[in-house]
Design goal:
about 325 residues, alpha/beta, 9 helices
């Protein structure tokens, strides 16, 4: 395990880490499925090591679900309780009402409802992968006094930002396309058909996953409706173009508001490459002006490094907690 350098006030650290820890299997006895009632149905989640301690809230990326953390959480220290939530329309959570095109700001309102209105937690710690990292970043900026720690794994906030000259067109295309063209119609078919669809769809992107990992994610999405017919109710509306994209200037303004301790993990084969890496490092410098500690780590791996190679990510998170003030 590599050693992290302790963060110093108004400074951030950067270091590449390599790990060989063997992945462990999840003990199902340490995981509890939960459902949180909301006006349109429920929010589902997986709560690992549920005890008196307030959990680390884990938010997944687009078109994933809470199972994206299944291989990472067992490698975290036993005193770290984790509540991984399915975003609305993903995993076992209810889809938002038909006729609506969800925006990422609406999802932040949903997080706020769960944290404050349902659990009544005064302060939370956040872990986000990809789009979940974007939500966690925005929440940390909007409610800076209510977030203690924010851990980001290959955050996609620079992928979902618009240049000012394209912002209006992106908003119109997103909201009208999301409302008119898609009404959250579920996919149905055999298990093999739905698995092949997920695998082949991801194989066309730079962020493909093995069939084994697609099966892990799909296991949380599917509903069996007859002997060999399954339904995948995953909501196809929240595409990046449909999310109320902010500008880069807006993201920089958010960075100025973040006050919590922050751990930013970038994957070498992930989304934070070229100018996006430069934007990330600029924002970490901005955040370090108000944060007591900002730690920046680079790991070898793809966008889903926490799922494909959790042994490279878990020790970094563990030591971040161990060296916390």
């Amino acid at each position: 395990m590599c050693s992290l350098r302790s963060g110093i006030l108004r400074r951030f650290s950067s270091q590449r880490c390599f790990h060989t820890t063997q992945v462990q299997r999840i003990d199902p006895k340490t995981v509890e499925e939960i459902k949180i009632p909301v006006p349109w149905g429920h929010i589902a989640g997986k709560w690992w090591r549920k005890n008196e301690e307030q959990p680390l809230i884990a938010l997944h990326g687009l078109f994933d679900n809470a199972a994206t953390f299944d291989r990472l959480v067992p490698l975290l220290n036993e005193n770290i309780s984790v509540l991984a939530l399915d975003l609305p329309g993903f995993g076992k959570s209810s889809n938002p009402p038909n006729g609506m095109s969800p925006s990422y700001l609406e999802l932040i309102v949903w997080i706020r409802y769960v944290m404050k209105d349902y659990f009544n937690w005064k302060k939370i710690n956040l872990l986000g992968h990809s789009f979940g990292g974007n939500l966690s970043f925005s929440y940390s900026a909007m409610f800076p006094e209510e977030v203690g720690k924010f851990i980001s794994i290959d955050c996609s906030r620079f992928n979902m930002s618009s240049k000012p000259e394209y912002l209006l067109d992106d908003l119109k295309r997103g909201y009208m396309g999301g409302v008119v063209k898609s009404m959250g119609i579920p996919q149905e078919g055999s298990y093999e058909l739905l698995l092949d669809y997920m695998y082949n769809s991801r194989a066309k992107t730079p962020f493909k996953l093995s069939k084994e990992l697609c099966e892990l994610l799909l296991s949380r999405d599917l509903e069996k409706i007859s002997d060999d017919v399954y339904r995948n109710p995953t909501d196809l509306r929240p595409h990046l173009k449909y999310m109320g994209r902010p500008t880069l200037l807006f993201l920089d303004a958010l960075a100025e508001k973040v006050k919590c301790e922050m751990l930013a993990i970038r994957a070498t084969g992930g989304v934070l490459v070229k100018y996006r890496q430069e934007r990330l490092e600029k924002q970490l410098s901005i955040i370090s002006q108000n944060s007591p500690r900002v730690v920046y780590q680079v790991v070898d791996g793809g966008h889903h490094v926490h799922l494909e190679n959790p042994e490279r990510v878990a020790p970094i998170i563990n030591q971040f907690f161990e060296t916390s003030d």
